Amino acid sequence: MFNMTTLKSILAFVLLLAAVHFSCFYFNERPPLGLLYGPLLFLTVAKSIKKGYWLHYLPFAISGVAFSILKFKEQDVNAGPWENYFLLYFISVGISLFVYSCLIWKSNKKNIAKTEGISIGQELVQLLAYGGLISSLLIGLLVLKKKWHATDFGFDLNWMLFFLLGTFMLLIGIYLLCYEDKTAISLTAKKEPQQCFDDTMSANYIETLDKCVRETDLYRNPDISLDMLASQTTIPRHHLTRLLNVYLGKNFYQYIAELRIEYALGCLKNDAGIKIESLAYECGFNSKTSFNRYFKEYTGYLPSYYKTIIHHS
After folding, report:
1. In 3-state terms, the chain is what percent helix, strand and coil (to 5)?
2. Do 25 and 44 meet the contact criterion of CB atoms below 8 Å apart?
3. N- to C-terminal Cα separation, the chain
4. How many whole angstroms separate alpha carbon 40 and alpha carbon 37?
5. pLDDT in tens, 132-174
6. E-strand spans in the chain?
7. What is the CATH number of domain 199-310?
8. I need a labelling partner for 252 at 20 to 30 A (CA). Which of 103, 130, 135, 286 fits?
9. Which residues of the chain does CATH 1.10.10.60 include?
10. If 0-12 CB within 10 Å is exposed, 13-18 middle and 19+ buried, where does residue 139 land?
11. Global pTM?
């Protein structure tokens, strides 16, 4: 679930960072603050902070040390050491923005798919990722122009970067001031539509559904569909969809996959010699790959490793 409180805290820090970054340009200072945007924004889509997360800030730390040394030893910013620093810094920022924007876009896409909707916060993060990609392109052009004296592109690259940074500062500020956590609430409300049957009927439906799929092993049919399940259980299709989504908290594919994995667990415990690929097809999966994916989601282990654990414990 997208944590709106965490998102707002991180974006507030990013806004503060951008303001400091702007002031540094005003006073003609060039600390490597651009290397912080990617790691900070990546936090908004990261599922958890792992032990090695601090490594994301290593490029900033190294550049910061280099900046401090040059600031102390060489006052002339037009000198050779400074030119080398600026070149490496711009290249690093361009790569950082490109890589983190791609990671954020990919991770945010998965989050949106899981929630079956999109909040204002997610839209903003997605927009910032697109902005990061555009910025990385502009920085690449800037490096070409300054180092290899590429042709004039017809517009000021520095001002384009300032404009992008200012625009995103404005958007972040508007979001922090004008949008409360109600965006997350409205998203949840969208995911949980009003019930069209009471608790008694839902209990009867669940009993009918469970009895049908387990007694007939219908879930092991590789061609099973929502329509087929509705027909076999005599539960109206729209009632069945709502039953799964609202009362059981899962979609049709998750429900069937969990039944198949439960069946697979029993087979692995009772038959030490069973082959994983054969088991995948016996459960109803169309490939070993999909079986492995759902098995790991359900148990935390790959089938082959789980098999080793239970028969050597």
Report:
1. 75, 0, 25
2. no
3. 35
4. 5
5. 899 999 888 888 877 766 566 666 777 888 888 888 889 888 8
6. none
7. 1.10.10.60
8. 103
9. 199-310
10. buried
11. 0.53
